[in-house]
Amino acid sequence: MVKKYTLLKKDGEARRGKLETPHGIIQTPVFMNVGTLAAIKGAVSSMDLKEIECQVELSNTYHLHLRPGDKVVKNMGGLHKFMNWDRPILTDSGGFQVFSLSGMRKIKEEGVYFNSHIDGRKIFMGPEESMQIQSNLASTIAMAFDECIPNPSTRDYVNKSVARTTRWLERCKVEMERLNSLEDTINKEQMLFGINQGGIYEDIRIEHAKTITKFDLDGYAIGGLAVGETHEEMYRIIDAVVPYLPQEKPIYLMGVGLPSNILEAVSRGVDFFDCVLPARNGRHGHVFTKEGKINIMNAKYELDGRPIDEGCECPACKHYTRAYIRHLFKAKEMLAMRLCVLHNLYFYNKLMGDIRTAIDGGYFQDFKKQKLEEWGGKA
């Protein structure tokens, strides 16, 4: 069974590794490109993802369960065949929707009762249902079902929620083992990552990390951050938690974030990242460059014949100017969004490649310092 993480090099706390999966090797640190409904918003295809050096695509369990339905995806041969993507896919568990749809759900021990954000129909999702949906999707990596705790939350609520998340994790593991043993399961080597929770309480986070480590999972995530706390609070929690997670397994910081956040988290031992931010920013004309983020719709770019970022090898920068892309936005042409999303995702994927090279070469701290200075707080 192919489920092996190998730590290749350390530079300080920064880790350079590889994760062998049924759908190929993931070189880490890695940024996963978010395709919520099995597509990157902004008219980006799976073929485009290969061109911009994407290693892992991330899709959303809750949303795909609603549309087109996970059973439809299974009937079509699983998510890889459905979206024509032969590299790794990670599916989140639906747990974040518990947080984001707070006005439309009730949390119970057995799971969560939702109202669909599409048509209002009632939905139930517990640990077993989440695993079943993700098994139908046949993703490479499935995430355990958890509750993403709002910030701030009382210490008493966080303690109770974390204890329930642990009980849910146990049920997830049992159900995944059952599903992987079934004859009609598409991906019988589906991997399971557990999620550390605990709000901004270091002691609860550490205790939970110790507890979930005993489950001997394929990887471990730090969840419930980037939900309103300061960057300093986020870094403090990462510093506290990472030493208590298994160092021989990949560590994933969920929903993060800015390029500067990624550099800081890599320096604290994180391997996996995801965020909608680069694609969302691109769709609104906010693009990342060597000098930081710029708004391509600003008037000063009306006659700018340079690419978005000089020296960039993305499809947008190789063929088009800032002036042209600005015109496309002003004319409300869909191509504008597509080009900027392609650029931003390439920027992130290239950044991760440069990070891996820096760790390999033993100069990551100098690389981090140089990038943060170049960006000047604008990334």
Automatic annotation (TrEMBL):
<dbReference type="GO" id="GO:0008479">
    <property type="term" value="F:tRNA-guanosine(34) queuine transglycosylase activity"/>
</dbReference>
<feature type="binding site">
    <location>
        <position position="314"/>
    </location>
    <ligand>
        <name>Zn(2+)</name>
    </ligand>
</feature>
<keyword id="KW-0808">Transferase</keyword>
<protein>
    <recommendedName>
        <fullName>Queuine tRNA-ribosyltransferase</fullName>
        <ecNumber>2.4.2.29</ecNumber>
    </recommendedName>
</protein>
<keyword id="KW-0862">Zinc</keyword>
<comment type="similarity">
    <text>Belongs to the queuine tRNA-ribosyltransferase family.</text>
</comment>
<feature type="domain" description="tRNA-guanine(15) transglycosylase-like">
    <location>
        <begin position="13"/>
        <end position="375"/>
    </location>
</feature>
<keyword id="KW-0328">Glycosyltransferase</keyword>
<feature type="binding site">
    <location>
        <position position="146"/>
    </location>
    <ligand>
        <name>substrate</name>
    </ligand>
</feature>
<keyword id="KW-0479">Metal-binding</keyword>
<comment type="pathway">
    <text>tRNA modification; tRNA-queuosine biosynthesis.</text>
</comment>
<dbReference type="InterPro" id="IPR004803">
    <property type="entry name" value="TGT"/>
</dbReference>
<dbReference type="Pfam" id="PF01702">
    <property type="entry name" value="TGT"/>
</dbReference>
<feature type="region of interest" description="RNA binding">
    <location>
        <begin position="255"/>
        <end position="261"/>
    </location>
</feature>
<feature type="binding site">
    <location>
        <position position="312"/>
    </location>
    <ligand>
        <name>Zn(2+)</name>
    </ligand>
</feature>
<feature type="binding site">
    <location>
        <position position="224"/>
    </location>
    <ligand>
        <name>substrate</name>
    </ligand>
</feature>
<comment type="function">
    <text>Catalyzes the base-exchange of a guanine (G) residue with the queuine precursor 7-aminomethyl-7-deazaguanine (PreQ1) at position 34 (anticodon wobble position) in tRNAs with GU(N) anticodons (tRNA-Asp, -Asn, -His and -Tyr). Catalysis occurs through a double-displacement mechanism. The nucleophile active site attacks the C1' of nucleotide 34 to detach the guanine base from the RNA, forming a covalent enzyme-RNA intermediate. The proton acceptor active site deprotonates the incoming PreQ1, allowing a nucleophilic attack on the C1' of the ribose to form the product.</text>
</comment>
<comment type="subunit">
    <text>Homodimer. Within each dimer, one monomer is responsible for RNA recognition and catalysis, while the other monomer binds to the replacement base PreQ1.</text>
</comment>
<feature type="region of interest" description="RNA binding; important for wobble base 34 recognition">
    <location>
        <begin position="279"/>
        <end position="283"/>
    </location>
</feature>
<feature type="binding site">
    <location>
        <position position="317"/>
    </location>
    <ligand>
        <name>Zn(2+)</name>
    </ligand>
</feature>
<dbReference type="InterPro" id="IPR002616">
    <property type="entry name" value="tRNA_ribo_trans-like"/>
</dbReference>
<feature type="binding site">
    <location>
        <begin position="92"/>
        <end position="96"/>
    </location>
    <ligand>
        <name>substrate</name>
    </ligand>
</feature>
<dbReference type="InterPro" id="IPR036511">
    <property type="entry name" value="TGT-like_sf"/>
</dbReference>
<feature type="active site" description="Proton acceptor">
    <location>
        <position position="92"/>
    </location>
</feature>
<feature type="binding site">
    <location>
        <position position="197"/>
    </location>
    <ligand>
        <name>substrate</name>
    </ligand>
</feature>
<feature type="binding site">
    <location>
        <position position="343"/>
    </location>
    <ligand>
        <name>Zn(2+)</name>
    </ligand>
</feature>
<dbReference type="GO" id="GO:0005829">
    <property type="term" value="C:cytosol"/>
</dbReference>
<feature type="active site" description="Nucleophile">
    <location>
        <position position="274"/>
    </location>
</feature>
<dbReference type="GO" id="GO:0046872">
    <property type="term" value="F:metal ion binding"/>
</dbReference>
<dbReference type="GO" id="GO:0008616">
    <property type="term" value="P:tRNA queuosine(34) biosynthetic process"/>
</dbReference>
<keyword id="KW-0671">Queuosine biosynthesis</keyword>
<keyword id="KW-0819">tRNA processing</keyword>
<dbReference type="InterPro" id="IPR050076">
    <property type="entry name" value="ArchSynthase1/Queuine_TRR"/>
</dbReference>
